[in-house]
Design a protein that fits this description.
Chain lengths: 121, 465
């Protein structure tokens, strides 16, 4: 009689795992990657050529931050329309320090978007 | 007057600019032209000529005159290896001066003289010449008084600053243990120059490639010690910056909990600007709290209310968009009198604002629907969940927008739901899309990527079976 009892005990977790147990993912403990502090970021300087040509625009940059808080890659997600403005924002913001994203208290790799708007007035 | 601004960063960056405690000036070692008092070079040349005519003990006077001329020439030329006014290049002048000083025999006094001159060269952006003087000063002081004598340590500190400014890894690594030992022994608070040196040293070791444990450990120890010595002036911005650096070091060491504790303490000190999204975020946080408590029925009611509210806002934004589109078309079509530029621009601006508002509301409605779907899914209301997920996905749009997170999560949810219903083919197609989108963004080790892979494996198995 001992065998069926053991089998039941062993099977119980397996059955639960294979069943339809679903818990809402949006409620899991999750934090996005972000700039650790803008105090540590150099301020993007308006490129001289862009000032001369009166270039303005908004650039969206996508940074991928590793689980160790290091910047793994960066790209222009949406250009301002001016290469110098995009590059200047990229140069400055890539020198920021980052906090990695986390899930259930464990750091994970994740992308983050930063928007920078260049305006002359 | 030109002013730069950024809607997202301006506030935070503005705070940062005033207090930024940058590492040593990266331009410090780029020699540049400096205007001199007319006749300064000629006067210095005359002093060299006069000293050359003096014998014996006066050799030290000649060395001093050569070094003065070297500094003036370097500042005027903007470069250390260009000869002007009939004089040798500054590098050669300094070489002659150093030959005299080195031959004079070691003494603490001479080392001090060379240190002062080395710092003067460094402060004039002549790093290489300053470095040669400081190297000689350190050698003389170490021989005369010992390498651990405070005078030798002070010279080594100046040399370290040059190494940091020159980004000379070998020099910094050679002197860093001494700098750390002197920090450990130090009792008085750091002055602003020392704070800057500690920050630059911390950055140097944190910034080394490969996240080597010994580099990160050195960065951590320097930051800890620096913080202990800054604490006396607790309002110091250097303390905040160094603390954030320490948090970054903890992240790099994968000491996530310690980093988070430190970060939370630092962030608590700064005011968080409130945004129009605050109300929505609070609503979301409340919903999350209820779900986490396991009160799914209560959460279901909250999510339905949320969807209704978002639907109303969505309807209002759609109406505004329709009106703005019609108004713009009407303005463009207007004749007798034709619309002026300002009227056309205003109509276009209003339309753009309406479009932005509508896009935002479209996203928020989709997000609320995805939350509702997940709660229904968890409660086993699969038909309702599927409808909510499908509506949400229609709202999230294609892969080009920035909503990848909500979109992939909802797709994955729907794939799991399809699998539960036995529709492996549809589930497989959706789950593959999830993996294709997530993998380049999150990497192989991310739990969501692993889950997508596991789901795909299971689905393939189900299809075969």
């Amino acid at each position: 009689m001992r065998f069926p009892l053991c089998l039941l005990v062993l099977l119980a977790p397996a059955v639960a795992a294979a069943g339809n147990a679903y818990s809402p993912k949006f409620a899991r403990d999750e934090l996005p990657a972000q700039v650790l502090s803008f105090e540590l970021c150099p301020k993007p300087a308006y490129p001289k050529s862009s000032l001369r040509n009166e270039e303005e625009g908004t650039v969206t940059l996508r940074f991928t931050v590793g689980a160790n808080g290091r910047l793994l890659s960066q790209q222009v997600a949406r250009s301002s329309g001016f290469r110098d403005l995009d590059r200047a924002a990229q140069n400055a913001l890539s020198q920021c320090y980052f906090r990695p994203a986390s899930i259930q208290g464990r750091p994970v790799q994740a992308p983050m978007d930063i928007q920078y708007r260049w305006v002359i007035d | 007057m030109k002013r730069l601004s950024s809607p997202l960063l301006a506030l935070l960056l503005a705070a940062a600019v005033g207090h930024a405690h940058a590492a040593l000036d990266a331009t410090a070692c780029k020699p540049r032209y400096t205007a001199l008092t007319p006749g300064a070079i000629q006067e210095a040349s005359s002093r060299v000529a006069a000293a050359r005519s003096q014998p014996g003990e006066q050799q030290l006077v000649l060395a001093a005159a050569l070094a003065d001329l070297a500094l003036l020439s370097a500042r005027q030329n903007g470069a250390p290896d260009i000869a002007t006014d009939g004089n040798p290049a500054p590098t050669e002048l300094l070489r002659q001066a150093l030959a005299i000083w080195n031959a004079a025999g070691p003494s603490a006094g001479l080392a001090g003289t060379l240190q002062t001159r080395g710092v003067a060269f460094f402060n004039s952006q002549q790093c290489q010449l300053g470095r040669e003087l400081l190297e000689s000063a350190l050698r003389l002081s170490s021989t005369a008084a010992g390498p651990n004598h405070p005078a030798s340590v002070a010279i080594a500190h100046d040399l370290l600053r040059v190494g940091l400014a020159q980004r000379d890894d070998a020099l910094v690594r050679r002197l860093a243990p001494m700098a750390k030992a002197s920090l450990d022994a130090r009792r008085q608070p750091l002055d602003p120059q020392d704070e800057q040196t500690v920050l630059a040293l911390v950055d140097f070791f944190y910034g080394q490639p490969g996240d080597r444990q010994e580099d990160l450990q050195m960065a951590e120890q320097l930051a800890q010690r620096g913080l202990a010595l800054i604490s006396a002036g607790s309002a110091s911005s250097a303390q905040r910056v160094l603390s954030y650096r320490l948090a970054s070091i903890y992240y790099a060491q994968l000491r996530y909990a310690e980093a988070e504790t430190l970060r939370a303490r630092l962030d608590a000190g700064g005011a968080q600007p409130s945004t129009p999204r605050d109300g929505l975020l609070r609503q979301r946080e409340e919903l999350i709290a209820v779900v986490r408590k396991g009160e799914l029925q209560a959460a279901l009611g909250m999510a339905r209310t949320m969807v209704e509210q978002r639907q109303q806002a969505f309807d209002a934004s759609r109406q505004a968009l329709v009106q703005a589109t019609a108004a713009e078309a009407q303005t463009k079509a207007q004749r007798d009198p034709a619309p002026d530029k300002a009227a056309l621009a205003q109509a276009a601006r209003t339309l753009a604002q309406a479009r932005t508002w509508h896009n935002t509301e479209t996203f928020w409605l989709a997000q609320a629907r995805s939350y509702l779907g997940e709660i229904q899914h968890a409660l086993g209301e699969l038909d309702g969940a599927a409808a909510a997920y499908e509506a949400a996905l229609a709202g999230f749009g294609d892969g080009r927008s920035g909503n990848w997170k909500d979109r992939t999560r909802t797709r994955s949810d729907l794939a799991i739901l399809y699998r539960t219903r036995g529709d492996a083919a549809r589930a497989l197609a959706l789950q593959q899309q999830v993996l294709d989108e997530l993998l380049p963004l999150l990497g192989e080790d991310h739990p969501d990527v692993k889950e997508a892979r596991a789901e795909l494996a299971l689905l393939r198995k189900l299809q075969k079976g």
